Amino acid sequence: MTVGNAPTRGAPPRPRPERRPARRHTPHDVVQLRLLVVGALVLAVCVYAWPDNVPLTALVLPMLVGSLILSPRHLPWFIVFNLVLVVLALTQQAEITARVGGAVLVLFVAGFIILLTSFRRSRLGVAGNQGESMLVDLRDRILGQGRIPELPAGWYAESALRSAGGTPFAGDFIVTARPLGGDRLEIAVVDVSGKGEGAGTRALLMSGALGGLLGALPPEQFLPAANDFLLRQNWEEGFATAIHLSLDLATGDFELRSAGHPPAAQRAAGSGRWLVHAPDGPALGLLPHVAFERVAGRLHHGDAMVLYTDGLVESRGRDIALGIDQLLGEAEHLLRDDVEAVARRLVDTVGSPNDDRALLLVHRR
């Protein structure tokens, strides 16, 4: 009889499984550092052995490659290592001429510049190409949230975005949602205060937050929630304007709410006239506990709705009403031909290239 897990008397003991030593994987950045060190040593040996054939300035190549792929923790030591190799290779030069001295000066200045950029990147904690890929990924996510979801037959929607000066980041953005694939389409066009990198970084944060709120809240709660979010950030230049369209794709009924944003415009196919909808409401991030007025209506067959930012209608020395008239006149001309690509053509032809511009067009066929 056995007790517990004790083996039966006389039975051979069970062999214990052999424990294999765990494999230790060398971190990827360490592998890159070792390869660069070997490459720099080979290049330095070539400069040292054949100073007349291999130029001293060739030692700048490992530093440039290291600035692209090495982490901020390893890059400073690698640059110092390369500069030591420069000094050693200098001892083999037949004659220290002004040209050789200039080459050494260029190498040390390049190393100093790379060190400065490395110290700045240490705040982010990733190498140069990794940081750039992170920013590109964030930019693509912003653009992805502005993509129009698949719409039922009889509806067409298009968005277009252009940044000031052609930079990849903009303070204007568009977020869309069709909750659970239902009959309601939610659209928000947002203009963050400021220009350049400051507006672009705030737009990165806001687009993610507003994109999550847009499809998760009832239409009447979206702008108040966005206002509360912006107030919590305590940004020095922390306000934004926005316009929110909630559209029923089954009936064409819509609700519009605005937070200090330029008015929306609806083209009535029956009369050929443009109706300007300007619901009242303050900009986001300025006042707590504010209410946003609702404007309701319906898009009939053939009607179109245009939402846009102030970069398309505002300019120095011109009233915004004249800018809206110009935008709607150009839209009327384009809509007579074909509704396809109207948003892109409007953004390219109307407005100031020195300001961010965003436009969204919804058309019921």
Automatic annotation (TrEMBL):
| Record's keyword annotation contains DNA-binding | no
Q: Where is the PPM-type phosphatase domain?
A: 151-364
- EC? 3.1.3.16
Give this protein's Gene Ontology molecular function annotations. protein serine/threonine phosphatase activity
Q: Which UniProt keywords apply?
A: Hydrolase, Membrane, Transmembrane, Transmembrane helix
The question of whether Transmembrane is a record keyword is answered with yes
Q: Which InterPro entries match?
A: Bact_Sigma-Reg, PPM-type-like_dom_sf, PPM-type_phosphatase-like_dom
Protein's name in the database: PP2C family protein-serine/threonine phosphatase
Q: Which organism is it from?
A: Nocardioides taihuensis
- Organismal lineage: Bacteria, Bacillati, Actinomycetota, Actinomycetes, Propionibacteriales
